[in-house]
Amino acid sequence: MKRIVIYVHGKGGNADECRHYNTIFADSDVVGVDYSCQTPWDAKVELPALFDKLTDGYDGVVIVANSIGAYFTMCALSDKPVEHAYFVSPVVDMERLILDMCAWAGVTETDLAKRGTIDTNFGETLSMQYLAYVRANPYKWTIPTDVLYGGRDNLTELPTITSFCDKVGATLTVMPDGEHWFHTDEQMMFLDNWLTNRLKSLQQC
User: Fold this and answer.
1) What is the Cα–Cα distance from 71 to 204, expressed in whole angstroms?
2) Is 95 a residue whose pLDDT tops 70?
3) Helices 94-105 and 128-136 sit at what angle, rounded to 10 degrees?
4) Residue 37 to residue 50: CA distance in whole angstroms
């Protein structure tokens, strides 16, 4: 079987990060998605077209997605023929995250509705359009999925990620000292071991 592994990076990441996974998926072609979308409605236009182009000629497709890349994946690629997905620090409840960021910025939903967009001192722009869209367009994710979560994730709380995994039937692995951004040598080793062990587990099924 000719298989492709598609890597969908998170905010501030890039497609070249896919090279990290070449050794783990040695029997597959590993390709990073060089996307530009910053909203779920744009992701629904851009990502399916990129997916179709990248997967042409392949028999199987696996996705590895990070942070908001996982959220965009669930919004835009839920009906694509994907065998399995591996999510690292996924954003799974965007409404909750937006409301949390409003609280961090001392902004009420009424304030946001009146102003439309509000820039924060932590580098994010809050958007009422984004919040309204998220509420009106929940994703539906049924693809077999494994999730890696850092116990010190500052964007998603453990109960939120646990609820998501229970809802979609995903396995959950927690690195107690892991952060939202897996980047230290220890964290990357944990990530590699998690992914290798999940692949072995699937092969034994």
Assistant:
1) 29
2) yes
3) 150
4) 12
Q: Which amino acid is at 163?
A: S
Contact (Cβ atoms closer than 8 angstroms) between residue 88 and residue 65: yes
pLDDT of residue 1: 85
Q: Give the model confidence (pLDDT) of 182-204 as tens digits.
A: 999 999 999 999 999 999 888 77
- Is 24 in contact with 199 (CB distance < 8 Å)? yes
Interatomic CA distance for residues 121 and 134, integer angstroms: 23
CA–CA dist 135, 49 (Å, integer): 25
Supply the pLDDT for residue 205.
59
Residue 53 burial (10 A CB sphere; 0-12, 13-18, 19+): exposed
Helix (H, G, I), strand (E, B) or coil at 67: coil
- For residue 121, the model assigns a pLDDT of 94
What is the distance between the alpha carbons of residues 95 and 100, in angstroms, rounded to a whole number? Answer: 9
